[in-house]
Amino acid sequence: MTAADASPTTIGYDDSQQLLQLCHDLRQYVAAGLFLSEPEAADLGGPGRLALIHQQFRAIAELLDVEQTPARRIGGVNLTQLAGECAELVRLTYRVPVIFERAPRVVVAADQALLRRAVGNLLDNACRAAGGGGHVQLRVDSAGSEASVEVSDDGPGFGEIAAGTGHGLQVVAAAARAFGGRIEVTSLPGSGTTVRLCLPVGHPRVRSA
């Protein structure tokens, strides 16, 4: 078969992986929205419930917008607020306590959509690892010119692996590369896992005309 005979709708491996990741991320928001529409969510109160529903739709719109416009839009992102929103999402979709230790306000130069996906994947992995009897700890901090978002679980751990390989860390590694940061993974069998995403603090530099 020649190149001219190939179907224009053929999906390559990279495209397939990207589609799977997008479906995975969207499934989290859909699951949260379905929970919020159930009678069990009535104890959240009317205004609080509507605010959470709005938050899920806003995140979905942000995610789809980025898929249609792949170019990164780097800006000042409130990491503390974003991490809190991601914690609210996983609390709606998992029965795992998520303890959030927040800094007053930490701003990093990043693409908000990609950073949200990275933190969301960290929390999703941690909740899965913690299981029904465990818990997850989320921490946002800053020191000097570096900020960090750290997610820990007390699950079985996945051993010593190379940073950015497997276990949903590809998106996290991509965020670290895109924003000039790094990831650190600490994991021992039976001792849980801690993943730290470190990023430069502050707003992006604006070039003068």
From TrEMBL:
Q: What is this enzyme's catalytic activity, as reactions?
A: ATP + protein L-histidine = ADP + protein N-phospho-L-histidine
Origin superkingdom: Bacteria
**UniProt keyword ATP-binding, yes or no:** yes
Going by the record, the broad EC class of this enzyme is: transferase
Q: Which SMART domains did the record assign?
A: HATPase_c (SM00387)
Q: What is its EC number?
A: 2.7.13.3
Provide the alphabetized UniProt keywords.
Answer: ATP-binding, Kinase, Nucleotide-binding, Phosphoprotein, Transferase, Two-component regulatory system
Q: Which SUPFAM superfamilies match?
A: ATPase domain of HSP90 chaperone/DNA topoisomerase II/histidine kinase
Output the PROSITE patterns linked to this UniProt entry: HIS_KIN
Q: Where is the Histidine kinase domain?
A: 21-203
What is the name listed in the Swiss-Prot or TrEMBL entry for this protein?
A: histidine kinase
The organism encoding this protein is Kribbella karoonensis
